[in-house]
Specification:
alpha+beta, N-terminal domain of MutM-like DNA repair proteins, Helicase, Ruva Protein, domain 3, DNA-binding, 4-stranded antiparallel β-sheet
Length: 257
DNA sequence: CTTACCGCCTGTCGGC
DNA sequence: TGCCGACAGGCGGTAA
């Protein structure tokens, strides 16, 4: 692969020299994901990519950047030597590009980016039980708890509201006071919410694009998020909003106790 | 230790 | 109609 960087920094400075040293000329052996990081494995290193909230990685036919806010272009040949071009695009530059010098997933997992991350919700054996046990003595609101990547990864602001609605839990409840039974429902709700979003192709408000560059404009059915003042789909009560840890939360005051 | 909140960044939208 | 401020999100850093 070859790496062309059009910009030196996204959210953080890009280690351009190190990235090129470790990645250029190397064979991309695998593409993985951990939490919201995309990982590109080569023999000596992992390329690490985060899309923030507005990021895209598009597989395009031309090496020339044509989409605004294209910050890097990776040229990767297939097994026949035919090149393709992976464009990293991110209007708000909340994303990240990094490289970790190591040859196996275990060493990667020890890296500061990943060392403190909680489990993957979609492959956990019993997410509800795990969340219940992790939450004991926690005084913070359950929504903040659920969004803490050290507890469990992958549950962002929108899906936290949605999952709590599905489980019938008020987002203001202290995490440590919610029963094991409710956590069992919540564990299932998180998995269902994420799977539904994945099936729908992701959640988007305006500028989503598929990896082949087509404008997606999927919008999954959101039960409460961004629906302040609208009737709850279960009981008709008007959806309320509030702010928690600087983030907007939406919930049904009747269904979520 | 735990929890809360700021700042990064730009496109979009509501209000005047 | 045009402008401008507020707001959205992930998440690391810092403060309380």
């Amino acid at each position: 692969m070859l790496a062309d960087f059009l910009r030196k920094d996204l959210r953080d400075p890009i280690p351009i020299k190190e990235f090129k040293r470790l990645m250029e000329g190397a064979v991309v052996e695998d593409v993985l994901r951990r939490s919201k990081y995309l990982l590109m494995k080569t023999p000596k290193a992992y390329g690490v990519f985060h899309l923030g909230m507005t990021g895209n990685m598009l597989w395009l036919k031309s090496r020339t950047p044509e989409i605004p806010h294209t910050h890097a272009v990776f040229t990767i040949e297939d097994k026949h030597g035919k090149p393709g071009y992976l464009h990293f695009i991110d209007a708000r530059r909340f994303g990240r590009i990094d490289v970790v010098h190591c040859s196996d997933a275990d060493t990667l997992a020890a890296h500061p980016h990943f060392a403190d991350l909680g489990p993957e919700p979609l492959t956990h054996k019993d997410l509800g039980k795990y969340l219940f046990e992790r939450s004991r003595k926690k005084k913070q609101p359950i929504k903040s708890f659920l969004m803490d990547a050290r507890v469990v990864v992958g549950v962002g602001n929108i899906y936290a509201s949605e999952a709590l609605f599905r489980a019938g839990i008020n987002p203001k409840r202290k995490a440590g006071t919610v029963t094991q039974e409710r956590y069992a429902l919540l564990g299932k709700a998180v998995v269902q919410t994420l799977n539904k979003a994945i099936d729908a192709g992701g959640t988007t408000f305006r500028d989503f694009k598929n990896s082949d560059g087509n404008p997606g404009y999927f919008k999954i059915q959101l039960a409460v998020y961004d629906r302040k003042g609208e009737p709850c789909e279960k009981c008709g009560t008007l959806i309320k909003d509030l702010r928690q840890s600087g983030r907007s939360t939406f919930f049904c005051p009747l269904c979520q106790l």
